[in-house]
Design brief:
This protein is an alpha/beta fold. The protein is built from 7 helices and 9 strands, in the order βαββαβαβαββββααα. A 9-stranded mixed β-sheet has the order 2-1-3-4-9-8-7-5-6, sandwiched between helices. The chain is globular.
Length: about 240
């Protein structure tokens, strides 16, 4: 049975609750640690799906792994291999599909709310709630690529999620765990302290709110990941 490929771009930005969901459902997965120099696979058909996590870099940076990742995503979309991207991963998906990634007008860090757009696809992916609690940590934003549908927006960022068929790009984070939250607050403490953005929470507030917020977030993540996993067709399970 083919695994889901999980691409890690930075040591502290692992798969978190996404991997937990796969494990609970008995779905095998393979971590491809690009931050440790792992090679980008040449053919997406070796996997049931591709998941891209976050990272502090920009998709516009001159990094050796970005061009092959963009090409891999293009191939996956063309060949019907489902792709999901979290934050940087969502930006990679947008750029691969012809979108543009640029500096966001306001940096968002910490717990916040997003609202689904009034389209049926938003309800399919995110359920019926009019406001959803998520986690933010981004200073850039993506445009909605041609042919895709905008699904989520926040007060400070109009494009928080989009879908193109079975492919989902997220600007916000739904993969957070207590361990990830604590780690990011520690490694990103200086960024938080130096920021004057009205949408940046202090680390103390983030950590205090984490237990309650994570309970709600994991419920949302189960729904979103379940919908994405439902797009893994039986044809992708076989080994060529």
């Amino acid at each position: 049975m083919k695994p889901v490929a999980i691409f890690r771009h930075w040591l502290t930005e692992g798969p978190g609750y996404f991997a937990t969901t796969l494990d609970r459902r008995g779905i095998p997965w393979e971590l491809i640690a690009l931050d440790e120099g792992a090679a980008v696979p040449a053919d997406p058909r070796g996997f049931r799906g591709l998941a891209f996590m976050g990272g502090p870099m920009s998709v516009n940076d001159d990094l050796p792994w970005i061009p092959p990742v963009l090409e891999l995503i293009k191939q996956a979309v063309a060949q019907g291999v489902p792709v999901i991207g979290h934050c940087l991963g969502g930006q990679l998906l947008s750029k691969a599909l012809g979108g543009v990634v640029s500096r966001a007008p306001i940096k968002e860090i910490g717990w916040g709310e997003v609202r689904p757009t009034p389209v049926a696809q938003a309800q399919d992916w995110f359920g019926q709630e009019p406001v959803l609690g998520v986690f933010h940590w981004h200073g850039e934003t993506f445009s909605i690529p041609p042919g895709a549908t905008r699904l989520l927006a926040s007060e400070h960022c109009a494009n928080q999620a989009f879908a193109l068929g079975p492919h989902l790009g997220l600007q916000c984070h739904i993969e957070m765990t207590q361990e990830l939250v604590a780690s990011w607050c520690e490694t990103g403490a200086r960024e938080i302290e130096r920021s004057s953005s009205p949408a940046v929470q202090q680390a103390r507030e983030i950590l205090e709110q984490a237990p309650q917020r994570l309970t709600v977030l994991h419920h949302l993540a189960e729904h979103v990941y379940g919908h994405w996993l439902g797009s893994l067709s039986p044809a992708t399970f076989s080994v060529d």
